[in-house]
Amino acid sequence: MSVKEKIDVPVMAELAARGEQPEYLFWVGCAGAFDDRYKKVTRAFASILNHTGESYAVLGTEETCTGDPARRAGNEMLFQMQALQLIELFDSYGIRKIITICPHCYNVFKNEYPDLGGNYQVISYLDYIEGEISAGRLNPGLEKFNGVKVTYHDPCYLARANNITEPPRNILRLLGANLIEMKRNRHFALCCGAGGGQMFKEAEKGEKEVFIERTGEALDTGPDLIATSCPFCMVMMTDGIKYKNREEDVKNYDIAELIAQSLGN
After folding, report:
1. 220 CB contacts (<8 Å, ≥6 apart)?
2. Which ranges of 29-147 does DSSP label H, i.e. alpha helix?
3. Coil, strand, or helix at residue 51?
């Protein structure tokens, strides 16, 4: 897919003005909206939603932060202000189903917003992709990744917090990838080093930064590609690959990008 190629993405306010109600809100998230690398993941997943003909929309300029980073950093007041603002917005549009490409957003919507009155059916994009493949509405090609050695890094807020471990692995196998596990995986996977607000602060004192340790475990599997499914994890893995001087022979892609590539997008 050309970077300049336009993708038609429905916007909630425009649909509401026409009296239309999409089934899903596609929650882009801060990284998906502002981080140049993760914008490619947003585009990839939007192309998948368009491919399946899904009824969805994004909030566009009305989307703000979930408040998750504020809560992790200890600013509970800011978290509640941001969350209540979004809950009011969601209610105004009648939003009940949310698909998100960020595990941090997924976790806070699913497990923490209900305490403030925000009750939604929250779906990880990995569950969505696996479900669409199983239903036959998404048929990724196998040629591009057949036999490619891939290791998958489990994000904390998918695996340990929400027990989402098998959908990404099933997707990678369906793509024909040769999946090789790190020694610490699934519920026992090591954090990338960016969780709990660490993404936004200087590293604490120690002998080795967490992202270097985790990238080392990934590289020990001898992969052609490290697959991720979280914007924080992607930043840490990309930095780790550069730190290890392996960017020429090892790539880091989000699973949505792999699916989009297999579809020729």
Report:
1. 182, 183
2. 29-34, 36-52, 68-72, 76-93, 103-107, 125-134
3. helix
pLDDT for 1 beyond 50: no
Q: Do domains 12-129 and 140-262 have the same CATH topology?
A: yes
The answer, as to whether pTM is greater than 0.85, is yes
Domains of the chain by residue range: 12-129, 140-262
Domain spanning 12-129, CATH architecture: 3-Layer(aba) Sandwich (3.40)
| Two tokens, residue 101 | 């490409």
Per-residue pLDDT reduced to its tens digit, 191-244:
998 776 666 667 677 778 899 999 999 999 999 999 999 999 999 999 999 999
**Which residues are within 8 A (CB) of 195 and not within 5 positions of it... i.e. 6 or more apart?**
72, 104, 156, 157, 232
Integer Cα distance of 174 and 127 in angstroms: 14
Q: Are 167 and 126 in contact (CB under 8 A)?
A: yes
Domain over 140-262 is classified CATH 3.40.50: yes
